[in-house]
Description:
Keywords: mRNA processing, mRNA splicing, Nucleus, Spliceosome. By secondary structure, the protein is mainly alpha-helical. Helices cover 35% and strands 5% of the residues. A two-stranded antiparallel ribbon has the order 1-2. Strand 7 (411-413) and strand 8 (416-418) form a beta hairpin. It is extended. The model is unreliable at 1-7, 44-48, 207-229 and 467-472 (pLDDT under 50).
Amino acid sequence: xxxASVAFKSRxxxxxxxxxEEARKAGLAPAEVDEDGKEIxxxxxxxxxxxxxxxxxxxxxxxxxxxxxxxxxxxxxWYDRGAKIxxxxxxxxxxxxxxxxxxxxxxxxxxxxxxxxxxxxNMHIAPDEKIETFELDYDGKRDxxxxxxxxxYAHVIERYEARDEARRKYLKEQQLKKLEEKNxxxxxxxxxxxxxxxxxxxxxxxxxxxxxxxxxxxxxxxxKVEKRVRTTGGGSTGTVRNLRIREDTAKxxxxxxxxxxxxxxxxxxxxxxxxxxxxxxEKFYEGDNQYRMSGQALEFKQLNIHAWEAFDKGQDIxxxxxxxxxxxxxxxxKVIKEKLKSKTKDTIMEKYGNAxxxxxxxxxxxxxxxxxxxxxxxAGRVIKGMETSLPKSKYEEDVFIxxxxxxxxxxxxxxxxxxxxxxxxxxNSYCTGAAGIEAAEAATDLMKANIARxxxxxxxxxxxxxxxxxxxxxxxxxDLVLDEKLLTEALKKEDERRREEKDERKRKYNxxxxxEVTAEEMEAYRMKKVHxxxxxxxxxx
Length: 541
């Protein structure tokens, strides 16, 4: 049996609670009672919704629940919509600056924004709204119909009743009209009258609801299968109708080749033709794509495309929201398109004639004579009289700015666009005419002359100068003569200098520098110098 779990603040509280329960069991402490003064059974947990059968409860009860009585503080009332409590005559401090009500501010005001608010005009002060707060219980907070007035549904019923009444009145008027027309005619007209009577009966039958058709449609479930959808023991059910006749060959059995048309078993669809090489007159199934590209499916596809294109062009049309409107607009579009096509055809035939007709062609058209004078050169090219007119675009053409006589882009030189009239490549430049062209050509010629003169001066060989090589240079002259004693002393000095570099303790305090370098000292430096590219540098010392 489950027991109630109680959270204690400390271990001392837990110990005291255990001692109290032991004392109650031994009869040394009074038993715990509920609100009615009845003793609470300690074996029944306080959170259980029903008492166990072995407790021998006298009658079903929910008193062991913690709050089995409804709290009288909770209310079932609702907000008084649109109620006003006070109408002020002038603006009050802290009220809405727009309407003047004290129950909201200007940011949350629901009135239309005034040109001048009530704070400045002190007129047309809006009344204060009635603000209520309710303390709802658990069910009241979750009641979706809380505050709903059932009397408002009467308007819906009245509207439907008025529609049914108007329909019955219309049907009755039509029947009376048919009867009057029938009685006004002569009864002895023979067979013609019998035919008209049958027509009248057909019209009367059309006004009535065809109950036979309704019954027939209900009986169309010849292969109806009831199955449960996503349920274990209950829940919603669905109806599945299998409209395929069992004697027909299944579409996946028409071609047993593995590489033939794909069959989707989940949707029972095969889009491609399973037998593409068979005789079309002998095939009864050519794939599901056949139904999509023929009949009403193709018309519906064209209707959808027309609705999308019309919506993109600004028409307020939507195929799903208003299908009747979309279909009506599509029909009107087709009628207008046919009229426009026939009008274009008539215009072309009126202008150029129709070769299929038997009318004689005028001599003017046969001989090709006209009053237009055309001049040709010896090669047969047109000189004058048949100038071709250039088509105009939507952009501005032949707009001349800054005194130019040609447009920007009429001149091209050195990968730059410019004006042909002055040969300038600056877009916003002022036209300088022929003088500008001459000045530009002169500047160009001068620049080319300067470049050529510079090139010729660079190509001329410079006079050779006899430079004396320094003693410590990189190149050693061939006629250099070294003294063997001075070279030996220089080698010793170079060794001492290198030892001082390795050990600074051997360096003297007073160092004397000599800037004069002799040829022997430079040769000693070269001989002692470590060449890092030398593969034998590690074996020198």
